Amino acid sequence: MEIVIDNDDIIIKKLENFDPEHIFECGQAFRWDREEDGSYTVVAFNRVLNVLKVGEDVIFRNTNLEDFENIWKNYFDLNTEYKAIQETFNSDETMKKCIEYGDGIRILQQDEFETIISFMISANNRIPQIKKSIRLICEKYGNFIETYNNRDYYSFPTPSELSICKPEDLREHCRVGFRDERIYKVANMIENGEFPFYDLKNKTREEIRDTLITLPGIGEKIADCITLFGYDKKDSFPVDVWIKRVMETLYFGKEVKKKEVSDLGRDKFGKYAGVAQQYLFYYGRENKIGK
DNA sequence: TGCCAGGGGTTCA
DNA sequence: TGAACCCCTGGC
User: Which helix (H) or strand (E) covers residue A63, if one does?
Assistant: First the structure.
């Protein structure tokens, strides 16, 4: 990896399988803004970063080498060879087409607590609304980080910071609707040690999923999303209405039960089913497959 | 301008 | 298994 440092910019030359648009627009993260120059500003781990792809190079702005090495390298999963993952799908012509379309997608290594709350908010919700609720929660319960491109950025609250919330504030001020009590309960269960949040990290996909599902507001789909996006379990295959539609159109040729979709997804794509899911999602949503 | 359907899911009956 | 749930947007 060839790194060039230029003031507050870190430039990675010829960075393969990396496209900010595909990374952020495939439904795995909600704390980003698209800028006029086509770059993306993202806030994570108490930092604000701007990412721009220029030809084969990627420019990471508003950061330094130390943060790049300690935070962003891991956040963007740069130690994983996506080319090798893609090759495991080589025998699947349909998937090859999806990869061609969505190449550059990476599974972000996001904060566990933020991922839990964010995907609880995603239940029966739309992306703009999810982003708005999360932004309001950060502004109300997180801490100010900095102003970048005329926008104020706040950290995502810790379990402790969010545990002092009132359900009515979550509803009325943060616009989370019927998810208010659930979020309040989960933050407090974690803060009070009533949920083994800090023991989950080294468990298997199944163990994490089964534990998460015991929380209010977390069912199968959201538990699968959290294991994939918050715990880096790449064999997780979340099935939402988009994945169901895409798989029905591209693989089944008819309507099937949700369980059939998740079974086929994990059988077919194995230990990288979650990466395949992201290619399918991006391809399906951008092309409105099945709609 | 105003009404209404529906959404990347979970819960409860 | 199916209806209800809050908020917001888009279509008419």
Answer: none
Class in CATH terms, A112-229: mainly alpha
A177 CB inside 7 Å of strand C: yes
CA gap A94, A163 in Å, rounded: 45
pLDDT digits (tens, 9 = 90+) for A234-271: 999 999 999 999 999 999 999 899 999 999 999 999 99
Q: Which residue is nearest to nucleotide C6 (CA to C1')?
A: A177
Q: Write out residues whose CB is closer than 7 A to strand B.
A: A 26-28, 122-127, 129, 178, 182, 215-223, 225, 239-242, 281, 285
Length reported for chain A: 291
Specify the nucleotide whose C1' lies closest to residue A128 (CA). C8
- pTM of the predicted model as reported, rounded to 2 decimal places: 0.97
Residue ranges of chain A that CATH labels 3.30.310.260: 2-79
CA distance A14 to A56: 5
Give strand C nucleotides closer than 7 A to any protein Cβ.
5-9
